[in-house]
Each structure stands twice: as C-alpha cells, then as structure tokens.
C-alpha cells in the first residue's frame, strides 16, 4: 500500500486554478522532493495534503484511504505532520512549550518520550528549552518547527522549504538532522528551492510548473537532467 497517492488533483482559489490535474505518489520510507519556480503550486499541494485546502476535484489517499475531505486535525491524528513555510512557531511560548503543543493529539506520557527524542536530535533545543521561541535564530526556529512536527510521531512529514532564508552552514545542520530522522524510517515529502540540496537528499523528485507536474524521476536522473540543470541548478 502506498503512503500517499494523489490523483488528478485540482485545487482552486476562487477563479484561480492553482493545481491542474496533479498526479503523484510517495511510497513508504521514501524521501520525495517537489521542485518548481515561485508560484508553481508547491505550497498549495502541501496545504491540500494536510487538509488546510479542499480539492475542487481529484483525490488524496493516505495509506489507502481518501483524506480529501478529512479535517486537518484528524489528518494529523492519522499520521501526517506539516512543517509550514516560514517555520511558524509560537513566539511567546518557550521552546519546551512549543514542543509539548506538538503532542496535542497524543497522551501526555507519549509526548514526553517524544520530546526527549527531539532533544537528542537537536541538542541546541535542549540548551534553549526555556528560551522564548520568538528570540531563537532562524535556524533554531526551523529546528523547533521540525521538532514540533516530530512530536506527533508522524508517518509522513511534509516539509515546506526548510532552508528558506538560512545560512548555508545552518542548512547543513538541518539536513544532517533530517538524515537522522530518515534512518528512523520516516517518509518525507520535501518542498525546496535549493534543488541541489533536495535532490542529493531525496530518492525521487517531481518538478512542478504552473500547477502541473512537468518532470519526474529518481533524484540522480533529475540531477543529471539538462532541463533541471538549466532551470534549477544554474548550470
Ligand atoms: P512559492 O515557491 O513562491 O511558495 P509555490 O510553488 O508554493 O510558490 P503556491 O503558493 O502554491 O506556489 O501558489 C500557486 C498559485 O496559487 C500562485 O499563482 C499563487 O498566486 C496562487 N495562490 C496561492 N495562494 C493563494 C490565495 N490564498 N489566493 C489566491 N491565489 C493564491
């Protein structure tokens, strides 16, 4: 059974058709990346999977069941967790409080075990456990946003542009942590502007253009594709 199966998905904002017949899938344990220029529809796709937007037509199936009309909080409960673009942490709560909130769908005892796992993954967050999230650096906020998403023990993690606006050295730390997460068997769908980083990390990728899938393949094929090199890798 596939982790995620999206079929002929159409999503609209009023008259604007943001997704036009998108079909893609993610297998269990895979890392799949979504590339594409600004406005291609990547965030719209992520928000539709997590239940924040409703499809006009087409379907989203998670582990064999349609979630196209399931509420966002039930989707978290089923095992999909999203780290939104712009790492929205609660700025006036501490790091620890932000993490605990990530466990709102689970019993408290399980949440504390997961918090401990996240603090092992991101030692920086342990050092700053009592600091207000709003005073963290951009990289630390991204770690916290990823950490918080991990607390709900997702089967599928949706990551929207984790490297956005971060220094290269911080991006490296984040991808190092994501590699560790990956060895725990988590499935990841990753939207990234940094195509090279994303394709080195992923197993497969899709390239979106104006609401459609323009190209797809395994990550190495895409890295070597002249079209991807010209448009996304600056070659
Ligand atoms: P970026 O990399 O810039 O985040 P993206 O690939 O994630 O881009 P989306 O944010 O999904 O693209 O946007 C897809 C299209 O839908 C764009 O044309 C955008 O202007 C439009 N759009 C997005 N959100 C809305 C909205 N709330 N209302 C109307 N149109 C929207």
Automatic annotation (TrEMBL):
The keyword Cytoplasm does not apply. It holds the Pfam family ABC_tran. It comes from the Bacteria. Keywords: Amino-acid transport, ATP-binding, Cell membrane, Membrane, Nucleotide-binding, Transport. The keyword Zinc-finger does not apply. GO terms for molecular function: ATP binding. CDD domains: ABC_TM1139_LivF_branched (cd03224). Residues 4-235 form the ABC transporter domain. InterPro entries: AAA+_ATPase (IPR003593), ABC_branched_ATPase_LivF/BraG (IPR030660), ABC_transporter-like_ATP-bd (IPR003439), ABC_transporter-like_CS (IPR017871), BCAA_Transport_ATP-bd_LivF (IPR052156), P-loop_NTPase (IPR027417). Belongs to the ABC transporter superfamily. This is Leucine/isoleucine/valine transporter subunit ATP-binding component of ABC superfamily. The gene is livF.
């Amino acid at each position: 059974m596939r982790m995620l199966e999206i079929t002929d998905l159409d999503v609209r904002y009023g008259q604007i058709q943001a997704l036009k017949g998108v079909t893609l899938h993610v297998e269990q344990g895979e890392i799949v990346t979504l590339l594409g220029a600004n406005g291609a529809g990547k965030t719209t796709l992520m928000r539709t999977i997590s239940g924040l937007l409703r499809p006009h037509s087409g379907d989203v199936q998670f582990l064999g069941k349609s979630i196209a009309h399931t509420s966002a909080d039930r989707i978290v409960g089923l095992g999909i967790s999203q780290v939104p673009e712009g790492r929205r942490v609660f700025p006036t709560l501490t790091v620890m409080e932000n993490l605990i909130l990530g466990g709102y769908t689970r019993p408290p005892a399980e949440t504390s075990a997961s918090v401990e796992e996240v603090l092992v993954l991101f030692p920086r967050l342990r050092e700053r456990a009592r600091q207000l999230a709003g005073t963290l650096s951009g990289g630390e906020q991204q770690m916290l946003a990823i950490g918080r998403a991990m607390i709900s023990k997702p089967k599928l993690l949706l990551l929207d542009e984790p490297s956005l606006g971060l220094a290269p050295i911080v991006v490296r730390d984040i991808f190092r942590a994501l590699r560790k997460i990956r060895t725990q068997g988590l499935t990841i769908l990753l939207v990234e502007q940094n195509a090279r980083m994303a394709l080195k990390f992923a197993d497969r990728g899709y390239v979106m253009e104006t609401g459609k899938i323009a190209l797809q393949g395994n990550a190495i094929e895409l890295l070597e594709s002249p079209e991807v090199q010209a448009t996304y890798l600056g070659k």
